Amino acid sequence: MATADTPDGIRDSHREPQAYEALEQLITAAGFDAGDLQTALLAIQEAKNQKKKQVEAGENKFFLDKTLVYEDVDAFIFRRADSKSGRYYFRLYDENTKKPLVRSLRTSDKIQALASARLMYMDVKGKINRGERIRGITTNELIKIRIDNLKKIVTPIPHQGITPETFRVKQYYLSIWAEYIDSIDLTSRTIDKIQPETTREFGIWFLNKEKATGQAKGNRRSAEVVNNVITEVLSMYSKVAIRDRYISKDRLPQIDKVKEQKDGSYKNEVLTEEQYKVLWKYLEYQYTRDKKVRAYEIEMRKTFKDFIGILFNTGCRPKELLGLKVKDITTNHSWNTQQKEKNVVLYIPPENSKTGKGRRVVAPIKKRVDRIIASYKRVGNPLQPNDYLFMNPAREDRNAFVRQNYFARLKRVLVKSGLQDELDRTGTSINLYSGRHTYACWRLRYGDVPIHLLAKQMGTSVIKIEQVYGHIETEHKLDVITKSQGTIKDAGIILETPEILDDPV
Q1: pTM higher than 0.85
Q2: How far is the CA of 42 from the CAs of 20, 31, 397, in angstroms?
């Protein structure tokens, strides 16, 4: 039977007798008796106790003036034996990470150190209990983690990750958030220390923020863009900060979204026929015939002019046109000679399409394409089949012009032509995407193109066409909607003004 001096490791009244018998047989076979085993175990236990005392003694030599913060033996303040500053430190052992947390309390006053440590203990212990990380990160560090994660899923194929362009947009959105955090002097503060309600007015701040040069300076941002930025910011906090336990869900920033117009159409981003004529006359007779400009720039202006013409006559997205290669422009072999002289087929590959699906666009732009190819030949840089149709000759990699470049040209053209003043008076905001919106409106209004066919041409859905451009079809079908209304009116029934009946008494 075990005595009071028997080590804890062999004191167990619940062991099965068979286990003891097996142990006795094993000891006997080894040439020992039970007394030898007990002596050995006691020696081992004593060695462990001695080692523990040595460790504690070593700690006590390092941890001077060690004082528990509360009754938690894993949390205390101390002064370092190897430091002459006399400053106190806070130490807490984290059971989750199996690592101690040590932070300077920046004071040599014990009472003040203990008070600060208790506040720190409540904060850190709360994080441990909620499963959060003890070590916080700043907003810029959070953004870096998010950007690094996004880089891993960049792909040229839509819907298999994110495209390089989408990555750049997300990167820009997050840079706006970093700028805002800096504007409210919270750059150096960790995200767990930023109160959620502090960032509530970010949307209003960004909406009223003055645009940089090249971004339609002075014009107010759309609510859609602002809300897109907010969505991306909140996504970052959900997919990084909360997922990786830097903050809990109740620490998610509170950001009020900006109210958008209920009308989801693009009425204010479409040129009228008269406005388009003004634009085209300026491009044709002034912009591309300026004798003060060198020949090279004239050819680039001609290329831009035809870019605008193609944009307004195909319904393609600006990105799709700028990503168009010479080899992707063909004719239909079944067309007659007259059709081939006028029309071309543009192939939009999946990697260049917003939907991730390839499509073919038919448009009467053969002469415009021929003029563009001729311009590049005249500047000594003839296009090859694998070249972009809107290749930037200034680039050694023969990549296409970027949207920012063409958008800047468009803004200068609108101002020089005098059209911008009229647009400002009518509240119209024109950008490169306006070509697509104008094309859709004109096809529905004048071309009588069925919606399903227009949707295929533009690479979108019938539902989207109806949502965005439905008002155009209603206007176009005015004669159908009002048919026989005059006859009904002659009969004494007026439909324009509903009759208001009193409630029965």
Answers
A1: no
A2: 18, 19, 79
